[in-house]
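so my prof wants the structure for this chain in the tokens format not the other one, which i didnt know existed until like an hour ago. anyway here's the sequence
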Amino acid sequence: MERIRIGTRGSQLALWQAGFVEAELKRNFPDISFEQVIVKTEGDRDQSSSLASIGGLGVFTKAIEVALLDRTVDIAVHSLKDLPSKMTEGLALGSVPPRGPVEDVLVTEDGRSLLELCHGAAVATGSIRRRSQLLARRPDLEIKDLRGNIDTRLRKLRNENLDAIVIAKAALVRLGLDQVSYYTFSTEEMIPGVGQGAIGVQIREGDEQTKEIVERLDHAATHRAVLAERAFLHRLDSGCQFPVGARAKVESHSIVIIGFVGSEDGRTSFIERHQGDEDAVERTGIELAEKFIACGALELLGQYRKE
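here's what i got, hopefully its the right format
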């Protein structure tokens, strides 16, 4: 193989991730040339509507998957949290590099914590999962919608009378935004989104040559963890536009996963943990989901499904 075309979104973070994958592949395969191909997704085209109103799965990934299937690109690089838990037919998850920070952060002018915000503070987020967990802890907050790339979101904090915004820590770290003041939520305070902080390298199913190449980037513990999280999400028939979160970690010879399901207003929430064998990570994620189902989680999540 002489050339590999890398499909990616055009946002700063997406380009960083594609650049990271490209650099690692170049290091391992110096005789192959690489080219980044920017693909505009539905989520990129509509930057004003809330993600909930755009609806549907794969708003940030589907167009790139189409490019991969029609051979416009050879691999696709995604934020794994954006990739639907049910893999598109004809495609496969080729590798998952080492995970970045998984936590969410509360960005303010002075780095104060959630409990230190004033009563009725205006906090913006584009995530229904974050909204649910924020209101569960602080029902007095005024939650506003937040869209745009990282620079846009930080600018809105300064210019739109917001007291705080909540974003993924991985974005700040990867883009080197050290000057930003923020409080890091522990994964107990705010359970992250499924796959948060992880990069997914997607390939065409059956493309063994490309698979052998991208597998050089794979980090086994990260891959196992995200498979457990994605199995949990899939069993709940949910996606990143649902108030659902999970965080899995490989510990010794087992995998431990914590999950969250809540209502948008924060008044109802379920948190459960489960442990399983590291060689049965997807089963472990499914078994955790069954605990939630027994508590009525499917009924709670039903209101967020779009016909």
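also thought this was worth mentioning. The two ends are 43 Å apart (CA to CA).
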